[in-house]
Amino acid sequence: MNTNPGSHAVNSRWKEVLGKSHRKPLVLVCLAVWLHASMVTAMSTLVPIIVREIGGVSLIPWTFALYEIGSIVVGAGSGLLVYRYQLRNPMSYAALVFASGSIICALAHFMPVLLLGRLLQGVGGGGLIAISFIAIGALFPERLMPRVMAAVSAIWGASAFLGPLIGAFFAQQLSWQSAFWFFAIMSVVLSIWIRSHVSEQSDHEVGEANHSFPVRRLSVLSVGVLLIAAAGIDPSIGKTPILVLSGIGFLGWFLRMDARGGGNRLLPERPIGFQNRVGAGLTMILCFAMSTMVVTVYGPLFMVHIHKIPILTAGYVVACTAVGWSLGAVAVSGISISKDSRAIMFGMSVLTLSITGFVYVIVDGPVYLLALLALSEGAGFGVAWTSILRRMLTLAGHEDRERASAAIPTIHRLGYAIGAAYIGIVANVVGLEVNVANETVESVAQWIFLASLPFALFGLLATWKFVRKPQ
Q1: 228 contacts 418 by C-beta, under 8 angstroms
Q2: Do 359 and 453 meet the contact criterion of CB atoms below 8 Å apart?
Q3: 2 in helix, strand or coil?
Q4: What span, in angstroms and rounded, lies between the C-alpha atoms of 251 and 345?
Q5: In terms of Cα–Cα distance, which of 407, 422, 460 is closest to 254?
Q6: In this predicted model, what pLDDT tens digit does every residue of 185-203 receive, in sequence order?
Q7: Share of the chain above pLDDT 90, in %
Q8: What is the dihedral of CA 151, 152, 158, 162, to 10 degrees?
Q9: What CA–CA distances, in Å, run from 172 to 49, 164, 167, 178, 314?
Q10: Quick check: 400 and 378 in contact, CB under 8 A?
Q11: Within 13 Å of residue 344, how many CA atoms lie on the same side as its CB?
Q12: What is the pLDDT of residue 181?
């Protein structure tokens, strides 16, 4: 594996990447990334309108948690699917599954039906994004990869910024259902494009399937997250702690099962905790993903109710996290390996300060300061991310290098799923409802953001363990 993505950049030119021989696969990958990224931020804009029409405010976190669960399960197995069936069939079917989920969401009159659609969207979107990154390695020569990754990053940032605009446009001009119909049509178009422009003959050899698909382990993982999410629905002293502890138990069971998986493990050895620096790094990613999920899940809802701003404005405040990530990544794109530790520590410190700022600003504003905090939150991740990837590959042993690389997005999305479930428990315990006094909404907002802060502080401790030099 080339651990320095910029090492071949001098041998490539944009003209070559955009040339006839590489134009179609570049469009293919960018379309897949666009569909996934724009749907994520569009959903943040649509949520306040959806719950106003069909109810289910207590189930808001599930609309994100189920999407992430679907992405985790399919993303973890996408490599195996590509090894067995090449690129065309798994990727085109993933687009159709995404379309099916979008159609179910569009037809939903009750929140449980919409949740089913979101799960299928997650399955399709997770497959698309995972296979897209496999496709980059399969369809482009290594010397062009830095340029291709730069194009994908630009599409990701643009999609995250356009997502709220798409969601708000359809919701205000037509209906929230029409937004899901739009994404359904786009995913069908993408599936047709894949079938037309990715032939079996053009599929490159991307590996060999030597291991079985870990259905049992991924099922245990999914049940663990679902139990934690279920604890937030109609919370009670008797039920909620039991569901939370049961969910944690299933997650622990998943880790034990995976540790005994031998060569078929999904994660590196001891992936959570401070026993080794790779584990500390993954723990850092998990904690910060959990702590930042509150902005995506409840940010637009609180801004619309407390600050009386249009839904489009609230969506763009949330989208500032993606913009900040892109700006931060570009700012440090040429950083040397010797500065990785400082970049990681600085980025995670900025992220922690941003979460702390939300506790004080979510109620009193002003809105531009909320946008600035969202921008700095994303920038913290963006500044640190490249250095995190590079350091993780350096620290992982030869046997675990590929596994550690694959574990980063898996743990990241797992943190989003658990964070959405956890924050839903907090919201329902402190009394979040649709029609409550503004003072109650303000109190709930502060409690919810405050409840996310301990994970950021624990993540900061994991950051120090990750970057410090061994004794």
Answers
A1: yes
A2: yes
A3: coil
A4: 28
A5: 407
A6: 988 988 888 777 666 544 4
A7: 4
A8: 140
A9: 9, 12, 9, 10, 14
A10: no
A11: 29
A12: 92
